[in-house]
Amino acid sequence: PNYEENRGWFHPTVLNKLVVLKGLIWEEELKVRDTLALAFFSILRDCSSLPMRKPYTYIADNVKPKPEDIVERDVLKIYLEKSKKLTAGRVAYEEQCTELMREQGISPQEFNQWLVVKKADARHLSEEISSTVDCVVTSPPYMGVTDNAGAHRLWYLWHDFGSTLQEDKMLEIGPRWKRKKQNLEQEYIEDMSKSLQQIVAVLKDGGYLCLIIGEPQRAKADILQEIVSLARKRLDLDVCRTYRRTIHKKWFAHPTGGVSVEHIAVFQRS
């Protein structure tokens, strides 16, 4: 798929192997296919000719390798290693679920009703789960730091997810590609306000909300204080505790556009 675009990222031999591998995966039954497909999408960056030392922003910004830098990769080896990790993770998860069912004294059927996974825009959550959640733990996008859709550019080249990369980019909250917009902070706080209103609506009375908030080095305003003020004045949340931690990962604490500090804020619905 998307041959002209893909050949700018992958060696011809790698492209052929990926096509065959994807075809074999999609012949599997759905339950197995999901795990195998996730492994497939997860190796696309490693199978591309982009040097491992290059950050994800090269993909987000569509900066392809030079033609002379297109190299072959061992697709099957990379895929097997990724599959083993994902399989181990799935087994560990199932073991944790089994232990939780034992502790709670519930059957697998009851557990499946209790555990619900939904995909939605945080600014427009379903009313079906209103006032039903005890605790929400989430890390909203760090303003102007990350391009979540762009980082998965290669995924969009290999599969139709029901929306295009450009469509999903336009839905992002405070993405890196908007970092130079004059009204970025205002737009970000407005989107955060909409999201938090929806999140608070799903909490039970007395329920808790834990936010991990990045402190962008480019930000002019104090993002933590903006959100705390929003939570108190407009969302009727009490602030329980706030913690501050320093980030030591060099790629995340990039001096010109990353974050060096994260804040963990715990709120309670009144």
From TrEMBL:
EC number: 2.1.1.113
A GO BP entry: methylation
Pfam families cross-referenced by the UniProt entry: N6_N4_Mtase
Catalytic activity: a 2'-deoxycytidine in DNA + S-adenosyl-L-methionine = an N(4)-methyl-2'-deoxycytidine in DNA + S-adenosyl-L-homocysteine + H(+)
All residue ranges annotated as the DNA methylase N-4/N-6 domain in the record: 133-227
Top enzyme class: transferase
PROSITE patterns reported for this sequence: N4_MTASE
Keyword entries, A-Z: DNA-binding, Methyltransferase, Restriction system, S-adenosyl-L-methionine, Transferase
Listed GO MF terms: DNA binding; N-methyltransferase activity; site-specific DNA-methyltransferase (cytosine-N4-specific) activity
Family according to the record: Belongs to the N(4)/N(6)-methyltransferase family. N(4) subfamily.
Stated name of the protein: site-specific DNA-methyltransferase (cytosine-N(4)-specific)
Species per Swiss-Prot/TrEMBL record: marine sediment metagenome
